[in-house]
Design goal:
The chain is built from three helices and eleven strands; from the N terminus they run ββαββββββββααβ. A hairpin with a 5-residue loop joins β1 and β2. The protein is globular. The mean pLDDT is 92. It has a six-stranded antiparallel beta sheet with strand order 1-2-3-10-5-8. A five-stranded antiparallel beta sheet has the order 7-6-9-4-11.
Length: 151
């Protein structure tokens, strides 16, 4: 059994993808015997909305730490101010964006764990690689992440 784990402020595994987006893996399945993973990320006020996507293998709970997000789940829009917590069951179509004017910061809790490994693999890809699209599609499929607009 995994023992006590403490993630100090700003602690964790920092990943940056090919677009410069950053995610901080605060706790992973390695820390929690696969029960959950916790990530932290930012959403700039001028960023494009996250594309509509579906997690088939885990529930996601989003807590807005700073700023403001609009979270859309199966067509319902939630105005999530700092301090809001939104639970999204697996299989639900979701996307989110920051309506501004300030940057937002949020924490996602994935249960069970596994999504952190998607971030590790997808964020390691180099966009200029000849097989980028194929490899990203394979990673998404492996972790049960679907993008309906691309299906």
């Amino acid at each position: 059994m995994t023992g006590l784990t403490v993630s100090v402020p700003g602690g964790g595994e920092r990943l940056v993808n090919f677009l410069g987006a950053e995610v901080l893996l605060r706790l992973t399945g390695e820390h929690t015997d696969g029960r959950l993973a916790i990530t932290e990320a930012g959403q700039p006020a001028d960023a494009d909305p996250a594309p509509m996507h579906i997690h088939d293998k885990e529930d996601e709970t989003i807590q807005v730490l700073e700023g403001h997000l609009i979270i859309e789940v199966d067509g319902t829009r939630i105005d999530a101010q700092a301090g809001s917590v939104v639970h999204i069951p697996r299989g639900a179509a979701q996307r989110f964006w920051n309506p501004g004017p300030a940057n937002a910061r949020y924490q996602s809790i994935f249960s069970p764990a596994g999504q952190e490994n998607y971030f590790r693999e997808a964020y390691a890809l180099v966009m200029e690689a000849d097989d980028f699209d194929t490899r990203l599609a394979e990673i998404r499929e492996r972790y049960g992440l679907r993008y309906p607009a691309e299906d």
